[in-house]
Amino acid sequence: MSVTADVEQFIISELSQGRDITTIDPGDNLLAKGIVDSHGVMELVAFLEERYGISVRDEDLTPENFESVARIDEFVARKQDGRG
Amino acid sequence: MLTDLLYENASARADEVAIVYRDERVTHADLLERTERLAAGLAAQGVGRGDAVALLLPNDPSFVASYFAISGLGAVVVPVNPAFKQDELDFYFRQCEVRAVISDERTAGVCERIVSGWERPAQVITTSSAHGQALTLDALMEAEPQKLEPRSPDEPLVYQFSSGSTGRPKRVARTHAQCTGEASYYATMGLGPEDKIFCAIPLFHTYGMGCCMFAAAGTGATLVVLEDPNPFLLRRQRAIELLEQEQATIFPGVPFNFRLMAEAPASADLSSIRLAFSAGTALPRPFFDAFLDKFGVPVRQLYGCTEAGTLTANMDADPVASFESVGRPVDGVEVRIEDDDGEPVPTGSIGEVAVRSPGLTDGYVDMPELNSQVFREGFFITGDLGQIDAEGRLTITGRKKLLIEVGGYKVDPIEVEDVVGAHPKVGEAVVVGVPGKVAGEEVVKAVVVPSDAVDERELITFCQERLANFKVPQVVEFREEIPKSPLGKILRKYLI
Predict the structure, then answer these.
(1) Are the beta carbons of A63 and B234 separated by less than 8 Å?
(2) 3-state secondary structure of B434
(3) Distance between terminal CA atoms of chain B?
(4) Model pLDDT, residue A23
(5) ω into B286 cis (within 30 of 0)
(6) I need a surface site. Which of B56, B123, B438, B441 has the fewest CB within 10 A?
(7) Nearest chain A Cα distance for residue B316, angstroms
(8) What are the domain boundaries of chain B?
(9) How confident is the model at residue A37, as a pLDDT?
(10) pLDDT at residue B440 in the model
(11) Are strands B17-21 and B24-27 parallel, antiparallel or unpaired?
């Protein structure tokens, strides 16, 4: 499964319960839609670290890295390439 | 009354900035015009005196204009957390019999669903027509401005909900006189038109409503609004930049804000802040020290409640020495410490905190029995425990009521127990707060006696569908029975 599909599934099943969200477009702004709150960010970080073996540092915690599934996909790719 | 403050500001400082939001600079004259237009638009839709109007907007100029427009018509504002789920919103809307709902595109769909089945459906007014709604705020604001008539002091202005130990939240009505009474405190705390209040806490909450919106209206100060403050973990750098860029002078926050900002990788010059307040829950010393070390700003504790708004604030010349204290009562507020019989305790002794205030509600709506217990001789018995020192400073030492503190929110365990207990495979459930990973923060834990095979994931999902995320148990522990005293009282201490 691709990172995009994997993260989408995680967000739908774990973070967006009760919000009538069955699909997420990779470009959807997760923050503006209120899908990911502070607790959700920590859950997402834990998921990414465990699933992809990356380390998310304090300075990585920015809207630019987490505002959409597409951005998260790019962030994971950078981390895995050792560029982040 | 409260809306009179808008007219006073528009008259005294028409071209000065009332609200900073993204690239917008809303002057006091602009704010009044938006409010008057919206009031006229709402009136044309039939909203009038005594009608409850739910407000589910993020912190932005529309929230402020809507709040004043609704209250200026004599209707009652019902500010609601937009993070609430359908069942919760349904409860609030029905409790208040809302006549209209103002929401953004995130919640418009769920609001439509809630009210569509009603015999007399409420109108849903949205910030955009993304969901095909006919009524938008912009359309309503095309109305000609309507001067707002003075309101009677005793008319209800706002309905809010207070957590407690009696199940679902209780409705608190506060009148024009009570809200205006609170708005008058802030000038006596030294705030004035030259101040810039940084608004990163939700305006739908009593704390943001009072310390940001009422404070700005009452003093003519500028509100500097942090756009999309959630998740604050991702917005802290923006918060720091905005504080520095706008040279904010007043910063009301919760411990969570101060900790995350202190831990942010980058720093900034925040020396413009002359008063930083923390409320909502006790400020742990490590957070105070970290923020002071990083930014050179001591955070002062402030104390208030949904029933009365702001009550006390630490305004000491040396707030480092008295950091644990929430300070002395603000102008017009009385605080006393009572024993279990309701008698005042000696100075320095711990007891239950009772307050009397110009901002205090007359009582919970339709709860006469409870009101007779917690409102006595003009005082509200808060359920918090505290002590007053020889200098008159209050320190909160604990709480008598069973509330769980999660990221600045108070979670009523009984409300969560009601939801967990409604699962068909749960025989009995008790919800408690257990220490989280960070000092001073708690995590919601459900202790469950199952009546059939069920796993943790299933119960958490069940709660996620019915409760705002901050109320959802993060831990579920299964037991064969709940420990109880011989009289049947749940022994919560054995569940933590």
Answers:
(1) yes
(2) strand
(3) 47
(4) 83
(5) no
(6) B438
(7) 33
(8) 404-494
(9) 77
(10) 64
(11) antiparallel
| Res B90: pLDDT | 93
Closest by Cβ to B83, choosing from A32, A37, A42: A37
pLDDT tens sequence across B378-431: 999 998 999 999 999 999 988 777 778 787 777 888 889 889 999 999 988 999
Cα-only R_g, chain B:
22
Residue B438 pLDDT exceeds 90: no
pLDDT at A29 (0 to 100): 85
Is the Cβ pair A58, B263 closer than 8 Å? yes
**Cβ-contact B413, B433 below 8 angstroms:** yes
Instruction: Write the CB contacts of B317 (distance below 8 Å, at least 6 apart in sequence).
Output: none
Quick check: A22 contacting B, CB < 8 Å? no
Interface contact flag, B235 A66, Cβ < 8 Å? no
pLDDT for residue A30 is more than 90: no
Cβ within 8 Å, pair B110-A20: yes
The superfamily CATH assigns to domain A3-80 is: ACP-like (1.10.1200.10)
Cα separation values, B359 from B7, B155, B218, B252, B309, Å: 21, 14, 14, 19, 6
Give the one of A32, A39, A62 whose C-beta lies nearest to B469's C-beta: A39
Nearest to B326 by CA among B255, B274, B374, B271: B255
Please report which residue ranges of B302-422 form alpha helices under DSSP H.
Answer: 368-374, 413-421
Among candidate residues B67, B85, B299, B353, the one with its CA nearest the CA of residue B204? B67
Which member of B86, B232, B266 has the closest CB to residue A18? B86
Domain regions of chain A by residue span:
3-80
pLDDT of residue A40: 81
The residues near B117 (Cβ < 8 Å, ≥ 6 apart) are none
Q: Which of A12, A38, A41, A64 is the best residue to mutate to test the B interface, defined by the most B CB atoms within 10 Å of its own CB?
A: A38
Whether residues B83 and A18 touch (CB distance < 8 A) is answered with no
Query: Which class does domain B404-494 fall in?
Result: alpha beta
Question: What is the arrangement of strands in the sheet containing B222-225, beginning at the earlier edge strand?
Answer: B24-27, B17-21, B222-225, B196-199, B250-253, B275-278, B299-305, B309-313, B328-329
Please tell me if residue B233 touches chain A, with a CB cutoff of 8 Å: yes
pLDDT digits (tens, 9 = 90+) for B404-418: 878 777 788 888 988
Question: B223 falls in which pLDDT band (50, 70, 90)?
Answer: very high
Choose from B469, B470, B471, B474 for mutation: most chain A CBs within 10 A. Answer: B469
- B128 touching A (Cβ < 8 Å): no
Task: Give the separation between CA B2 and CA B75, rounded to whole angstroms.
Answer: 13
Answer whether B465 sits within 8 Å of A37, measured CB to CB.
no
Q: Indicate the length of chain A as a whole number.
A: 84
Cβ separation of B85 and A34 shorter than 8 Å?
A: no
Which residues from B are below 8 Å from A42, CB to CB?
233
